[in-house]
Amino acid sequence: MKIKNTLTLSLLGLIMTFSNLSFAQTNVFDDVIATSPNHTYLETALLQEGLDAALRQNPSCTVFAPDDSAFNNLASTLGVTISDLLALPNLSDILTYHVLGSTVLSTGISNGAVVSPLSTTNTLKLTKTSAGDVYVNHSQVSTADITADNGVVHVVSELLLPDETVADIAIDNGFTTLVTAVIQEELLPVLTNPTSSLTVFAPSDSAFDELALKLGVTINDILALPNLSDILTYHVIGSEVVSSTLTNGQIVQPVSTTNTIKISVNNDGVFANQSKVTTADITSDNGVVHVINEVVLPSETVIDVAIDNGFTSLTAAVIQEGLLSTLTNPHGEFTVFAPTDAAFDDLAIALGTNLSGVLANPDLTNILLYHTLDSKVLSSDLSSGSVTTLNGQDFIVDLTMGVMINDANVTTADVLADNGVVHILDKVLLPPATSSKITYLPNVSIYPNPSSNYINIQNIEGEYSIVNMIGNTISKGTLRNNKIDISNFSNGVYIVKISNQKNNYLTSFIKE
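RESULT FIELD:
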């Protein structure tokens, strides 16, 4: 009987021991973070802010746990110490920004997911690359799926900050196509980096629709472009540039190294290449966003040929006369007969002035348009005879000895660009000095300008034609101080040519 009772007690003891072991719960704080030799700063911060209890008691959570190197990296970037980080007044908010209220394994993370952490200051943006890497905002998950009974820990390489970033501006303000493209091309980590300083020229949804229309494709085709990532990074500058610091003719290098962005600043507004800034200076904690009305493409344009090949005088003239946005249009087709710097110097000598004097010529725009055709014309397409230029006048092509345009020689032909071709000249072409010469109209009133629906032109009568900036005539009629309907025009700059018995005239207006 005594032996039986002893065995019974022993068996009960074993059962109670195993029972106690089966109910021993692990938690993400005590059994993962606190036991890690690489999370001492995170442990200290959680204890200091009294958040350790929450991670013990929360029945289901996900912790994106920055390791000690992540704290050191942030301190170094900000130029502070670890003690300074631990003294941040919003440290508790920063820590809860690393915690989700449910268990999410790495296999449950989808690319582009936007999730809400315990902090309500901002959302977390998740990226899962085609290679299988996982990012939370800008921070890569270095070790995933360390599990405990009440959740999971993913070790991250950078400290997350609940800052409002340029990506948040796009996400929160309906830039649907842009955000879709950024997510697809796995660029969220770049744009969500809180310690970056960025400028984003952000195309609206209508800008993407316009691009699809011009290319004759769908939005899905745009998203399938093999160089989409390059196009997107072409819209981003790696420093913060507010609109007041942009200058006419400024050339800036975006994150993409395929090409530069050319800035125009004039009475019509601010332009990045051919695209107008419709809303400027939307600020965030890591940069600024400028909304633009067209997608810019890193195409090699006819103006790139001039800029990249030392046509300093021609480039200065184009910038001064506000033609930069026109010649950077990747959807246009141009032929430019480009005078060299020496050609401009020769013209200055012939006029008894210098380059500044040439650039001050009131007829300079007319002269530049006289060098430009509204289509791509290779040297093999030329034939002897007259050719009509963008200013409405003809020059003469002579092929008897090489290629001559009026009295200028084409010294180098067929320098190709994505939106046309450049032929290099040894002289500046001057429009014929006849009674039919086109002049600007300083005393003619055109209003409202800019306009959305109609324009009035006063103080002159005659036959008019309206030409867009790639040379296509889109409207014509008789001018008798009457309104001209422009409601169906696309936004942009237009030239008005007016002819009467006295002269031919040229003026311009903006449709917006």
